[in-house]
Specification:
Layout: E1 10-18, H1 24-34, E2 38-50, E3 53-59, H2 62-75, E4 80-83, H3 89-105, E5 111-113, H4 131-138, E6 144-145, H5 149-156, H6 163-177, E7 180-183, E8 192-198, E9 203-209, H7 219-232, H8 237-253
Helix pairs in contact: 1-7, 2-3, 3-4, 5-6, 7-8
Length: about 270
């Protein structure tokens, strides 16, 4: 695999740009860099947003998205993919095609898919007509999928109000895609926050005391890019999830308190390998 010849692991994030800097490409770059990876990007859309929500979205033309991915992979290569907000059906197909082509040559490269559908402020980030394409074309390319509870509900068409129902959803998603699944439990209201990992054989539960804060903008993007970086660095899936969660938690604790809404994390926390 290419990464054995590189002094630092390379992670390609394919996601939208957040003008407020808390989520999307900006969060991914900060996360990957803090965790000692080399961040590369292909931008799927430009967004005008801040801690209060998304004001506007400008999609990138599918062919230009393809050109960005080509430019990175044809020269720099990558040791992991992370995808976030991917836009419409055409953009999703481009991303899936390019990942499939690269992974066919480098099958050990992990693919972390964060199936972003709704922003923290409630704005829809994935058009309804693109959902089938996401489920049938991109998710089967994934090594691991990281939905939050609203996204998991949308993908499996079942209510999720308990940890047991999170486990059921994770198994259903695995059966549909062949990818490991991390269902994030932050949208449940219990004092203990539980995330569920299903790798196709075993369930693992990761739990922490909930942090009482509004500064959680970009937590999903941050977790997925941290997970991709740790997988690229050779961690097992279990250990990569554990490390990614610990990093996100520390970044929440150290959040700088910016903005009047759901504020960003502090991605530059001291967190070494």
């Amino acid at each position: 695999m290419q990464k054995t010849e590189q002094p630092v692991v390379r992670v390609l994030s394919i996601a939208g740009s957040d003008s407020g800097g808390g989520a999307g490409i900006q969060a991914d770059i900060k996360t990957i860099t803090t965790l000692q990876g080399y961040a590369m990007t292909a931008i799927t859309a430009l967004t005008a947003q801040n801690t209060h929500g998304v004001d506007s979205i400008l999609p990138v033309p599918p062919e230009f998205l393809r050109q960005q991915i080509h430019a990175v992979l044809n020269d720099l290569g990558t040791d992991a993919f992370k995808t976030g907000m991917v836009g419409g059906a055409a953009e999703i197909r481009v991303v899936a095609e390019e990942i499939q082509h690269y992974v066919s040559r480098f099958p050990d490269v992990p693919v972390v898919v964060d199936p972003v559908m709704v922003a923290k402020g409630g704005a829809a980030l994935l058009a309804e007509e693109a959902l089938d394409t996401l489920q049938n074309v991109l998710l089967p390319q994934a090594t691991v999928i990281t939905p939050n509870i609203p996204e998991a509900i949308c993908l499996v068409k079942q209510d999720i109000t308990t940890v047991n129902e999170m486990r059921q959803a994770a198994r259903r998603l695995y059966n549909a895609t062949g990818a490991a699944v991390v269902v994030k439990g932050g949208h449940l209201t219990d004092d203990t926050l539980v995330d569920v990992l299903f790798d196709g054989v075993n369930f693992s539960e990761f739990s922490d005391t909930r942090i009482n804060t509004r500064h959680t903008h970009g937590t999903g993007c941050t977790l997925a890019s941290a997970l991709a970086t740790r997988l690229a660095q050779g961690y097992s899936l279990f250990d990569a999830v554990h490390q990614a969660r610990a990093y996100v938690r520390q970044a929440i604790v150290m959040a700088p308190g910016l903005g009047g809404g759901a504020g960003p994390l502090w991605h530059q926390v001291a967190f070494m390998r």
